[in-house]
Amino acid sequence: xxxxxxxxxxxxxxxxxxxxxxxxxxxxxxxxxxxxxxxxxxxxxxxxxxxxxxxxxxxxxxxxxxxxxxxxxxxxxxxxxxxxxxxxxxxxxxxxxxxxxxxxxxxxxxxxxxxxxxxxxxxxxxxxxxxxxxxxxxxxxxxxxxxxxxxxxxxxxxxxxxxxxxxxxxxxxxxxxxxxxxxxxxxxxxxxxxxxxxxxxxxxxxxxxxxxxxxxxxxxxxxxxxxxxxxxxxxxxxxxxxxxxxxxxxxxxxxxxxxxxxxxxxxxxxxx
Length: 272
Description:
By secondary structure, the chain is mostly helical.
């Protein structure tokens, strides 16, 4: 330690770089071309995957907390999710500095690799309740990963456990919703709509459920903003070309903009 109280001898102490495994992280940006801007493309997507890892960590923690009726604990996790989502939204502004001409300089080097193959993004969609069976076929190449995704696919979403919380609070939720096949995308139900309407009409009595609803709306709002910025960034860089890996590109990204994870939470605003 020097005269300013700062350690300078780390022979026997773990360093910042060691704790964060920076040698591995910073050695993972391997360009396949000599083009300067490929580094931007790699870093943006790697950073996005790290943020997605945190989002999954927090959503899964919130699901467990809600199942145990620990709603205040879940609120903290869900608030962190929406804050993290803002980082993902802003990342598109950085990627949008890549011009079409610059991208074409290294696009062929990507081969069949595509952002549509992001398995963490799929797990986030599963956790929010968007379940599309054909998605699982993308990952059949890796049996271990396919098994992990299948488990996420068949697990209850955060909205499923929120509906269960409504039932435990005494609302007359249809029994089939409580034992439904979680591998199917939730489409909406009148008993759930009635329950949320009661929550919003008596906020004082159902404060925790009201807070839960608003946290979920925050997350869906942010996710839709992320989807929109994704679509516009892709359109800005490659227009309406077919994406790498054969993805439909902009047309697909536009098609999911109208999908709602938590339909009753949006409909209730019209009914109030």
